[in-house]
Amino acid sequence: MTGGAGYIGSHTCVALLQAGYEILVVDNLSNSKKESLLRVEAITGKKVPWVQADVRNRGKMRELFSAHPVEGVIHFAGLKAVGESVEKPLRYYDANVAGSMALAEVMQEFGVRLLVFSSSATVYGDPAMLPIREDFPVGATTNPYGRSKLMVEQIYTDLAVSDKAWQIALLRYFNPVGAHGSGLIGEDPSDIPNNLMPYISQVAVGRRERLTVFGNDYPTVDGTGVRDYIHVMDLAEGHVKALAWLQNHTGAHVFNLGTGRGYSVLEVVKAFETASGRPVPYRFSPRRAGDVAAVYADAMKAEQELKWKASRGIEAMCRDAWNWQQQNPMGYPD
Ligand code: NAD
Ligand code: UFG
């Protein structure tokens, strides 16, 4: 698992270990701490073998593939801050596109052709219709981060055409939030959070004064942006299902991983206040550049094919995010 020490990766470690898989984590710790993996060990009672390495380092990756009997790869490693990607596009294309190419090259050398890739609903841009199906047009992405995800999807799809042995799942995540129910692992942004749920959590815990709501003039239920928030443990379990499904499927296949239901910013604020018992003061500001009004998935393909369906609602997402935030008000220790 590349990027396994990160937010989604650490939760997926738990789901995989609990499903009986043996894993090896590769992470350069550019956006995570090794403490997350120690916490995974505490939750599961199992060892998490891991190596600090960069996926772009082909020599190091070859060493790992030589030393371990890898059957498949879940590729989380990458950079994900949309705003930063506009300022540092080369850094993003290098980490996300060159990194994904280096990984696939080494996998090919070692005859490992089962690959699950973290893509994003951002590839759909501003959808003409809702809910969003996998066959909707892609490409109208508004930033280098989104374009890097789409490029990797295209590269991996070409690879699967060139060699029919590849078994690839391109998972388009909607908005992952929440934390493991133990409160031991969760999302730990190193800077001021870009995303709604960690920002709200930090306001509720007193680290920040108030939330800024970006826009209240969208054509939505209350004028604020609508997204398909998905509990990170549901998302993690989606990876376990995708791995199992790939055993019997070749080619490159796209799946939305979302709940199929949208919530506005103000609905999330309300749900969080209820879950935490704390007020979340906010003020409105103009729209954030690149944001769209509403995004939510048609999640039927994953349900029918992968036999996976998100089961945790907005209450559990807020409760678990809050539990993590309260137990770890400053995130993971160094
Ligand atoms: P994260 O930053 O918490 O995890 C990514 C991990 O990859 C980190 O531990 C980081 O240290 C590691 N990493 C980065 N570059 C690396 C490299 N070159 N070599 C080795 N390790 C490297 O992010 P996350 O939220 O867990 O996201 C995981 C993946 O899912 C990313 O590819 C992200 O783009 C994608 N994704 C995330 C979201 C979201 O909202 N969180 C939505 C859609 C897609
Ligand atoms: N929002 C606020 N205030 C904040 C943060 C967010 O009002 O401080 C609003 C946004 O305007 C949006 C909603 O809350 O309406 C959700 O915003 P997030 O930043 O949490 O999530 P996005 O949908 O903008 O982006 C997320 C991931 C991206 C990914 C995208 C599409 O962060 O990586 O989903 O998959 F590309």
Any overview of this molecule?
By secondary structure, this protein is α/β, with parallel strands linked by helices. The protein has one domain (7-327): NAD(P)-binding Rossmann-like Domain (Rossmann fold, 3-Layer(aba) Sandwich). The chain contains eleven helices and 13 strands. The strands form five sheets. A four-stranded parallel sheet has the order 3-4-5-10, sandwiched between helices. Strand 4 (114-120), helix 6 and strand 5 form a beta-alpha-beta unit. Helix 3 runs parallel beside helix 5 (89-109), helix 5 (89-109) runs parallel beside helix 6 (144-162) and helix 7 crosses helix 11 (314-327). The radius of gyration is 19 Å and the shape is globular. The model has no long low-confidence stretch (mean pLDDT 97).
Ligands in the model, by name, code or SMILES, are: nicotinamide-adenine-dinucleotide, uridine-5'-diphosphate-4-deoxy-4-fluoro-alpha-D-galactose
Largest sheet: 4 strands, parallel
Shape: globular
Which CATH class applies here? Alpha Beta
- Cα radius of gyration in angstroms: 19 Å
- Which architecture per CATH? 3-Layer(aba) Sandwich
Helix content: 40-55%
Number of strands: 13
CATH superfamily: NAD(P)-binding Rossmann-like Domain
